[in-house]
Amino acid sequence: MRFFTYILFFFFTTVLIAQVTPEEKAALLAFYIATDGPNWVSETDADPTNDWDFSGNVTSDWYGVTVTSGNVVSIDMNPTRNSNAANNLTGVIPPEIEDLSSLKTLRLPAENLTGTIPLSLYNITSLVTLDLARNNFSGTMPPEIAQLTNLRSLYLSGNDFSGEIPIEFTTLNQLQVFEISNNDFSGEIPIEITNMLNLRVLQLSNNPFTGFLYPEYGNLINLNLFHFSGNLITGSIPTEFGNLTGLRSLSLGSNDLSGVLPPSLGNLSNLQYINIYATSISGSIPPEFGNLTSVNTMLLTSNSLSGSIPSSLGNLTQMNRFSVKLNLISGELPSTLGAWSNISSFEAYENQLTGNIPESFQNFTNIKTLNLSVNQMSGELSPLFSSWTTIETLDLQLNSFSGELPGSYSSFTNLKKINLADNEFSGELSPSFINWININSIDIRNNEFEGVIPDFTTILTADPTGSNGENLKINGNKFEFGDFEDQFTHYNEQLFGFFYSPQANVNDVENLTSCSGSSITLSTVVSGRANVYQWFKNGTAISGATSADLVLNSLGTTDSGTYTCIITSTIVTDLSLERNPITLTVNLTGPAVNTVNDIFSCDLDEDGYTNFTLDLASIESQAVGLQSGVVVSYLNPNGTPLTLTNNYTNTIPNNQTVTVRVTDMGGCYNDTNFKLIATQPIVADSNSDVIACGSYILPELSVGNNYYTETNTNGMQLQAGDIITNTQTIYIHTGIGSCADETNFRITVEPPLLVGDLEDVTECGVYILPTIMNGNYFTETNGQGLRLSSGDSITETQTIYIFNQRGSCTEETSFEVRIDLLACEDSEEAIKSKFPNFFTPNQDGINDVWKVDQELFTLEGIVTIHDRYGKLLKQFNAVNGSWDGTFNGQRLPSADYWYKFTSLDGAIVLTGHFTLKR
Questions:
Q1: Domain end marker among 559, 587, 615
Q2: 4 in helix, strand or coil?
Q3: 163 - beta bridge partners?
Q4: How far apart, in whole angstroms, are the C-alpha atoms of residue 261 and residue 324?
Q5: How many angstroms from the chain centroid is the CA of residue 455?
Q6: Same domain, 642 and 705
Q7: Residues 845 and 869 in one domain
Q8: Position 308 in a domain
């Protein structure tokens, strides 16, 4: 019985304990009313089991509520945090929320709550998670937030909070997640945030924060995510960011950052996402970024990056999105990037890239977007790129790509947009391109495409709303009416945009020459079954000239001019094709003929006959010039026809004249002559090899001989008198063709000698020759006289020579040694010589003051000046003092005056007199 009584007591006690307090229930009711509970999704749906029924007990069955041990420990109105899963909370958080004193989790993301966070909420010290993201809260973050000492996750992103982050916030040492992006917080982030070592997520993007990136952020070694984009941060990215080796996501874009990308970021071996865009960061992409082998997204757009893309980035084989668009990057795309088999988006447009697209890019088998527009790239597109079967956008506009578009690109069945405009592509478009079944925009403007355009009418179809913007842009190419006239009506009427005019001029430019009285036919050939022609002469329409051929009979000089033809079509409207101009010159005497150069060949056996190698195309080009519509023939001097071949032996010894006749379509002609000259063998001058010191001057050669730096008249031609400063072989060439001769000689230029160089010197009694590195001392020039050595004593004035010799190279300098007793400091005669005998203070700038001469050696002491009566007139320092001949501002007369000098140590006392002359 006692056991049964105990069980009943335990049961009723547990039931009592499980009920929340009246204060907590009242707090829930206040929350329910303040957030418009009756209109919550959970309250208005068909499921009443999770409604907040205040007539009964509070249980964990209530939507979003968790009750443990009689306390509400969690309110989670949106467990998935998705906007489409919100519970339609509106209104504000009531101050009674503080009565939920055991609350650990408060999650209200993606609702429609407004107002400020009540200060009472910060009294809930048990809170571990506070999620108010994506509402319409306003106000500031108060210092009282420091009371939430157990807080580990704080989500405030996507609201209207403002003000600065209080320094008290940085005392929340348990905090791991701090997300406040997309608010209006301002000021500088407290540097003390770098002491919050448990932080895993730091999301500060899209606020007007100022300041700079602290190097101390490198202390937050537990960070997985650091986003600070869309602020007003200045300065550079600290090297210390390389310490954040656990970082998986880094975003610093849209700030006023400058400097360069620190190579230390290459240490972030766990990084998967890096986004640094819209800054003033310059310099190149560090090769160390090739160590970021976990990166799948690298966005470095809209900066001032230069240099080339490092080949080391080929190591990033997980790359999915790569963008360096809108920078100053140059050089070629590295072939190593072909290792990016997972890449889906590659954007490098608006840079200064050169070269072609590497064939290794055929491995981009998952590519959807490739945009290399607005660069300086060139070359042809590889057929191997047909492996890009997933591509949806291909944009290569404004480059210099050339060649044909490979027909194998018909494999691009997912292609939606292709833009090849403003390049140098040519050739025809493959009919198989109609396999582009998902295409809605084809832009091939301003290239050199020609030929029949594939029938895109089944894939570029009508779109009444224009929502897909189907476009076909083929203008600025070499297309003619017949290339698309069968599809013209469909394109013109059904497509959102069809651009086909203008096109390039048709047919070749021609320069025709004829003579008076002859006939000529001018023609144009343009495809199309409904063409209309109109010929023009000098810009004026020719009446009745409305056929593809224009026949001109009985030509006169007045028929000379520039002829063109405008072709239109009754099917392809609004397109006019113009024939390239035909310039017709009607001469009284036939077509013009230019001078042809004589041709030489060596007659080795000197019999007057030899074989000539003739370039007939070159001969004809010389004779005809830019004319077209003419025929070239050859005649003997007597007017009989002459057949020339590429290998021709002259039939007239030594010197044979050949007549070149240029005949136009009307039978008019003009002649010119050239000669086949058999030349005799000749011998070139011969120079011996030479060894020169420093340089060598080329001597004169015989007439007809010339110097060259390479054999067979290649390299640079040199002249007699040119100075050779480098060791090399020089070639002497004379004659032409097989009669030419050549010799060569070697010039060895030895480096010039170094020789010691000493200044002139004056000594008291003896001068000791110093040590020199190059050369030897001599008493006479050119290594003559007595050879002296370092340390020798020179006791009399003389010139000393320093001479050096190596082979034929010599070099010499000299200096004068003057032995002068006046240079001796302890000589009474030398000391007295320092005191002038007179001076002339006439203010003419010459000898205006009396002072001690300090040349050769310095004399230190005190000088006093006296008149003949012993009156002291002046006292000054011997080193820098002087006397200008005045006393108390009055000029003294011409006379003798006395001086007294006393050295500083009193060892020298010297007196004398001098004259003042005016």
A1: 587
A2: helix
A3: 185
A4: 13
A5: 42
A6: no
A7: yes
A8: no
Q: Residue 75's CB: how many other CB atoms inside 10 A?
A: 20
Pairing between β-strand 112-115 and β-strand 136-139 as defined by DSSP bridges? parallel
Residue 475 has pLDDT above 80, yes or no: yes
Cα-based distances in Å from 862 to 207, 520, 826, 901, 907? 78, 114, 17, 6, 12
SS3 890: strand
Give the total number of structural domains in the chain.
Answer: 6
Which of 432, 372, 422 lies closest to 400 in space, CA to CA? 422
Co-location of 383 and 455 in the same domain: yes
Q: Facing residues of 611 across strands?
A: 649
**CA dist., res. 419 & res. 632, Å (int):** 47
For the question of whether the overall pTM of this predicted structure is more than 0.85, the answer is no
Higher pLDDT, 24 or 793: 24
Instruction: Give domain status of residue 145, yes or no.
Output: no
Q: Do 423 and 339 share a structural domain? A: yes
d(CA 350, CA 397): 10
Note the pLDDT of residue 15.
38
Which is it for the CA torsion 409, 412, 413, 417, positive or negative?
Answer: negative
d(CA 235, CA 255): 9
593-628 pLDDT, tens digit each: 999 999 888 888 889 899 988 999 999 999 999 888
Q: Return the structure tokens found at 278.
A: 């819209």
β-strand pairing of 330-332 with 352-354: parallel
pLDDT per residue as tens digits for the range 720-768: 999 999 999 999 999 877 788 899 999 988 888 888 899 988 887 678 8
Closest CA to 484 of 462, 507, 455: 455
Which two structure tokens, joined as six digits, stand for 609? 């006959």
Collect all residues with Cβ–Cβ distance below 8 Å to 221 and sequence separation of at least 6: 197, 243, 244, 245, 246
Q: How many CB atoms lie within 10 A of CB 846?
A: 8
Phi-psi region of 230 (alpha: psi -120 to 50; beta: other; left: phi over 0): left
CATH code where residue 476 lies: 3.80.10.10
CA pair distance 423, 400, nearest whole angstrom:
5
The closest alpha carbon to 479, from 509, 508, 510, 445, belongs to 445
Residue 160 in tokens: 């209207």
Please confirm whether the linkage preceding 334 is cis (ω < 30° from 0).
no
When computed from its CA atoms, the radius of gyration of the chain, rounded to whole angstroms, is 50
> Tell me: the pLDDT tens digits for 478-498?
999 999 999 999 999 999 999
Domain extent, residue 738, equals: 690-750
